[in-house]
Design goal:
By secondary structure, the protein is of the alpha/beta class. About 35% of the residues lie in helices and about 20% in strands.
């Protein structure tokens, strides 16, 4: 990869990992209960950790959100989404941000096995943390967006559940918000992407074509999937905007409730007015499908709801 693209990737990654840091100032910590580094399962011989935030008051049970950080499946930290989960708790959610195993030491499907385990942990601990086990959403950015999508699109029959724990509970979520996550590996991939995916999936697309299909969210789209909201910038050089269009096309074809929020000239992360609008849309989506009693089974939205929204 050339130096210019390396710089773009570095800056964009920092932006995506810090996407919700501005939220921290708006959160009154005395209104929520917050805990760090709770063990939620095991990935092989590695303990998997999460941070949790929840409301101190209110009747409940509360809907839940799992937030998954990005970093090319090989870096990043759950701490980057602590402001997000604290904000979610203030808005009436039990929210967690999770660690997961990294490539290239741990190749796919280790990452999805881990976050599936985290969803099962939420259900297994529903009474302890006053969670509604039937109302769980997933949120993620970049690689985290990819994993968040898989949580909403995969069924237990698709496998990849892993052996991290709580196997008697479902890992399927009822609503998804995806920020610029990869969705389909059949299109053209730049040189940097090829290297990252090779480490993540255990070889090139020519060497291991099955892995590239199994890891792609579009592979699992079906009519009964969770509603999906996607945010993507048209100038994203890390995960091209075409990835969002490919996902939207598959979701529409199957009749899955979806919205695509397009950020004009947005890169791999954004700030300012566009970020504020993205945050507002994220919580409106979760409120609609996790709080309001709206069923999350597949159905077609009116045309104005299905088409892309431009910021």
């Amino acid at each position: 990869m050339d130096r210019k693209l390396q710089r773009v990737f570095f800056v964009s990654s920092i932006l995506s990992l810090a996407l919700f840091l501005p939220l921290s100032a708006a959160v009154a910590d005395d209104a929520i209960e917050y805990k760090e580094n709770i063990v939620y399962g095991k990935g092989g011989d590695q303990e998997l950790l999460l941070d949790l935030a929840r409301p101190k008051t209110g009747k409940g049970p509360f809907p839940a959100i799992i937030a998954i950080h990005g970093g090319s499946w090989r870096r990043g930290n759950k701490a980057s989404f602590r402001p997000f989960i604290k904000t979610a708790a203030k808005k009436g959610y039990v929210a967690i941000t999770v660690s997961y195993r990294f490539a290239p030491k741990y190749k796919f499907p280790a990452q999805i096995e881990d976050v599936k385990c985290a969803v099962r942990w939420l259900r297994a601990n529903a009474k302890k943390y006053n969670i509604n086990p039937d109302k769980i959403g997933s949120f993620g950015a970049s690689a985290g967006g990819h994993l968040a999508l898989l949580l909403g699109l995969m069924d237990k029959s698709d496998g990849l559940e892993g052996k991290g724990g709580h196997g008697d509970h479902s890992s399927k979520v009822q609503a998804v918000v995806n920020f610029f996550g990869p969705t389909d590996y059949q299109g053209e991939i730049n040189e940097y992407g090829k290297r990252i995916l090779s480490d993540f999936l255990g070889g090139t697309k020519e060497e291991n074509p099955k892995a590239y299909k199994v890891a792609a969210p579009v592979t699992y789209v079906s009519k009964n999937d969770a509603p999906v909201q996607t945010h993507h910038g048209t100038a994203d050089r890390i995960v091209p905007y075409d990835q969002a269009l490919r996902l939207q096309k598959a979701l529409k074809k199957s009749g899955v409730v979806n919205e695509l929020h397009t950020v004009k000239d947005g890169r791999h992360g954004w700030r300012g007015k566009e970020l504020t609008q993205s945050i507002e849309s994220t919580f409106k989506w979760f409120d609609r499908y996790l709080k309001s009693g709206t069923k999350s089974k597949a159905k077609s939205l009116p045309k104005e709801k299905r088409d892309s929204k431009l910021y």
